[in-house]
């Protein structure tokens, strides 16, 4: 998948790069996701965000408009994402429900992307609010 990760802090960069192992076309930026930085997501299928990135209806609509289909938050919480509207837009959303170390968060983030890439489900990390045949099998 073509992916951009926003709001990457120092140590996260190395962990994400190692976890990715060049499976995905992964771009890492320190910038937060907002309207001034959204252009980095052009041509990407997925965005990786942190809990500091707020994805309300307006942001989600714009991400969908430019072709983003999937969102992974590197947090256990999803309160910063309008999940219902993401579901209306048929966007996949996943979190990292149990991981606590930066290394484990990076591994789970990449695992979520890889599951979607091969047509699977993010399993217990799935936060999608849409009907999905895969979610029914794994949920």
UniProtKB/TrEMBL annotation:
It comes from the Bacteria. The keyword Repressor does not apply. Keywords: NAD. Pfam families: 2-Hacid_dh. Residues 18-98 form the D-isomer specific 2-hydroxyacid dehydrogenase catalytic domain. The keyword NAD applies. PANTHER family: 2-HYDROXYACID DEHYDROGENASE HOMOLOG 1-RELATED. This is Lactate dehydrogenase. It comes from Sphingobacterium tenebrionis.
């Amino acid at each position: 998948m073509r992916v951009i990760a926003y709001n990457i802090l120092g140590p996260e960069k190395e962990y994400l790069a190692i976890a990715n192992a060049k499976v995905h076309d992964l771009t890492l930026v320190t910038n937060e996701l907002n309207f001034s930085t959204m252009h980095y997501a052009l041509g990407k299928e997925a965005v990786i965000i942190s809990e500091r990135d707020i994805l309300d209806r307006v942001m989600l609509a714009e991400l969908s408009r430019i072709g983003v289909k999937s969102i992974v938050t590197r947090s256990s919480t999803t309160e910063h994402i309008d999940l219902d509207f993401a579901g209306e837009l048929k966007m996949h959303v996943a979190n990292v429900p149990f991981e606590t170390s930066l290394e484990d968060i990076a591994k789970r983030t990449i695992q979520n992307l890889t599951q979607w890439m091969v047509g699977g489900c993010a399993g217990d990390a799935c936060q999608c609010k849409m009907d999905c045949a895969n979610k029914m099998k794994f949920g």
